[in-house]
Design goal:
The chain has 13 helices and 14 strands. It has a seven-stranded mixed sheet with strand order 2-10-9-8-5-3-4, with helices on both faces. Strands 11-12-14 form a three-stranded antiparallel sheet. Bound molecules: pyridoxal-5'-phosphate. Pyridoxal-5'-phosphate binds next to α3.
């Protein structure tokens, strides 16, 4: 293919666009990860990471993708044969469940229609019935990236508390951290799983576990074999600013810069920005006469919007046309949603004009692909953005 001028529009729901500042921070010679400069940097960075998770406890950083951090959460706290409750909110919840099966957990997978979040009422009933406390953990995906539905973690916490149940609460914030309000400590979460390539605006390559004292305690007697993922080894080394094995040093340079950028903008402003772009996107979708996949307005994702294609239209053909004609990547439909939806990512390093460019590309693509729709989505989004000034300004 011949060279294309201008920047590619990467509007998948992660990896998100990497800001130049982060790229520049990573573009430097590597340093000795056992030397004093590294130790100093990491001691600071471990503390700087805490507010992002809403915790005063430790945040473990692995050189891994999010999937590795999922595995670390399980192997450090649970034992083969343990019963856990998970929710079928979409493809990522289904993959985490598959991993739990493989690791020998007995999963009570609460069915879902992939258009709603985790059901706290069903959870409360399950936990209330479990008089013998056989259920050891409740595991939820906060922002289901395959559907654009954000589960309400405070409701999940309330359900656990109302049933007076001691199960651990583990939450996947892989596509919500740094984009959507999140409070590990206040919401009584025991393990928060996350990674680098979404709200944190980095390439894939860092996995995170924020861990509660209760989770660490569970790890003292659980029987899941582990070595690479072991928190114990990690936390011992981390306390001096080091790692038990080679860390992803240049990714950590990038992380430091990304955390600084989020703090400069202010986390509340970052969250408000994501909400505002999501609302503008939904107004565009409504003006096109199309449906958003998420059926519960209280669970609309601030990070991405999944757009349902009319019966008989192949969403992947529309995406292919948009890529070919306008050099923009949109998210594909995953699992049982393949061909039925496409996903617009509006997360990370993103502003009003990035959104307008994105929506213009979608609207032009719908026309070129001859998808039955009405015009005026871009206009509806513009009207909303122009009428609602930026958060914090
Ligand atoms: N969980 C969620 C919600 C995700 O969106 C993803 C990836 O997009 C994963 C887990 C898996 O993370 P990774 O691809 O970094 O292993």
């Amino acid at each position: 293919m011949s060279r294309r001028a201008g920047r590619h529009f990467l509007q998948i729901p992660g990896p998100s666009n990497i800001p130049d500042r982060v790229l520049r921070a990573m573009d430097r010679p590597i340093i000795d990860h056992r030397g004093p400069e590294f130790g100093r940097m990491m001691k600071e960075l471990f503390v700087e990471l805490q507010p992002l998770f809403g915790t005063r406890g430790p945040v473990v950083v692995f050189p891994s993708s999010g999937t590795g951090a999922w595995e670390a959460a399980i192997v450090n706290t649970l034992s083969p044969g343990d019963k856990v409750v998970m929710f079928e909110t979409g493809q990522f919840a289904s993959l985490w469940k598959k991993m739990a099966d493989k690791l020998g957990l007995v999963v009570d997978f609460i069915p879902g229609d992939w258009r709603h979040g985790a059901d706290a009422a069903v959870l409360e009933t399950r936990l209330a019935e479990d008089k013998g406390h056989a259920i050891k953990a409740v595991m939820v995906v906060h922002n289901e990236t395959s559907t654009g539905v954000t589960s309400r973690i405070p409701l999940i916490r309330q359900a656990i508390d109302r049933a007076n149940h001691p199960a651990l609460l583990m939450v996947d914030t892989i596509s919500s951290l740094g984009s959507v309000e999140y409070r590990h400590d206040d919401w009584g979460v025991d393990v928060t799983v996350s990674c680098s390539q979404k709200g944190l605006m980095l390439p894939p390559g860092l996995g995170f576990n924020a861990v509660s004292a209760k989770a660490i305690e569970a790890g003292k007697s659980n029987r899941m074999p582990r070595s690479y993922w072991d928190w114990d080894e990690m936390l011992k080394s981390n306390s001096a600013g080091y790692f038990p094995y080679s860390p992803a040093t240049n990714m950590l340079f990038g992380l430091k810069e990304a955390v600084m950028m989020l703090n400069e903008e202010g986390l509340d402003n970052v969250f408000a920005r994501h909400e505002r772009h999501a609302e503008a996107t939904r107004r565009a979708v409504a003006a096109w006469g199309l449906d958003v996949l998420c059926l519960e307005p209280k669970e609309y994702s601030p990070v991405l919007t999944a757009v349902v294609m009319p019966e008989g239209v192949d969403a992947d053909k529309v995406r292919a046309i948009i890529l070919e004609r306008f050099d923009m990547s949109l998210g594909t439909g995953l699992g049982k949603l393949a061909g039925k939806i496409f996903r617009i990512g509006h997360l990370g390093d993103f502003n009003d004009l990035s959104l307008m460019g994105t929506l213009a590309g979608v609207e032009m693509g719908l026309a070129v692909a001859e998808v039955p729709h009405k015009r005026g989505g871009v206009q509806a989004a513009m009207d909303y953005l122009a009428g609602n000034s930026r958060a914090g300004h």
